[in-house]
Amino acid sequence: MEMDPLLWRNLPEHVLDVILIHLPVAALTRFRSVCKRLNSLLSCRSFLAKYSLTRSPVSFSQPWLVHTQGADLKAWSFERNNWIELSSSWMRVPWFASVLASASGLVVMAPVSKGVGRPARIRVLNPFMGIERLLPPIGHPAAAQLVVDSSGGRYHVYALCEAVERGKGSLYRFASQSNSWEVLSSEPPWQVFLPGATIDVCNGVVYCRAGFRTPQSGIWTFDVDLRIWSRIPLAFLPSDARCQLVSCGNRVMLITRMNCDGFLRILQLEHACMEWMTILELPNEMITQDDGGSISCMAQGDLFFIVSRTMRDIRVAVFDLVTQRVQYAPPLAGALTTSKSFPFYPCLSTLV
Questions:
Q1: Rounded Cα distance, 327 and 325, in Å
Q2: Where do the F-box domain residues begin and end (predicted)?
């Protein structure tokens, strides 16, 4: 498609608006650098409402898996089962930053190293609007999760942060409306700050996976209303099992991989009885690995992504929790250890 700014500058606005409404999102992201009219339209709720009714991929109900490697930016679409190219200006993920969470068209990023000991600034990015918000500094984030209100008008960021000056950590919650952090717990269990720890939020409960020693430490939970920590034991897992914890809608999923049986298992937590139920098993050979057995799992909406990397490509297996169907994305060549992958729900929003 022609990207010459002179061509679009001379079009009447009403004609241009009709064209923009029907553009696929891959082309729409490129237009932001050449069409000033688009920048104003992206903050117009009437335009966003019309755009969501078109056939553009931005209105699809399923999330993408975004993969970034340097200036290269691609997204895998569930409906097309194909990788589409995005403009590098759509979202820049610096090599020193890590994508901590994403939801409803927003992405949460933060530096991955402590640098010289200064508190890190978590930032929330809205790629379609091309704007971001730097959150007030609170420490170095070890893990974070983003929860967007069902109305779409506000969000919360939950973060486990290590306070450099105290040598301890706390669980925080950021509110977009007040632009401020609240300390939920100033003395979390020390296990939640082990290397590789992650957090997920589901139904008002924060779930913490205690790093690479999850089988021994169990899953730690924090009830936001009661402000109480509790532990879910994982006695059924051997000590050498690899685990990941992921929230998917109202579900809490545990992904395990044990060297003894050669299977990757996805378990779902039954909240009523606090027990785990196996819902899917995949043979190890379906999830190619070259890192000694670690796994990379992400979820958004009803899709569950299992990502593995080799020195040559990235492999993705996708499990649809509604249809119980497994789909495999075409291998993406050229994946390196410095690349980043994360799920992203492609919706237009004025929120940041």
A1: 7
A2: 5-51
